[in-house]
User: Which sequence fits this backbone?
């Protein structure tokens, strides 16, 4: 049995902060390169 996945939006507040730049963005990049993110996933990065 397969479970249907709905599109999702990963919303990141504080996209220019130290944590986002040093940890979150590189991690998301590696997940994408390994094809571990769903094709319908969108990443929305917000900053002031």
Assistant:
């Amino acid at each position: 049995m397969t479970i249907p996945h709905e599109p999702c939006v990963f919303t990141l507040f504080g996209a220019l902060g130290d944590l986002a730049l040093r940890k979150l963005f590189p991690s998301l990049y590696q997940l994408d390169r390994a094809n571990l993110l769903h094709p319908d996933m969108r990443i929305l990065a917000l900053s002031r």
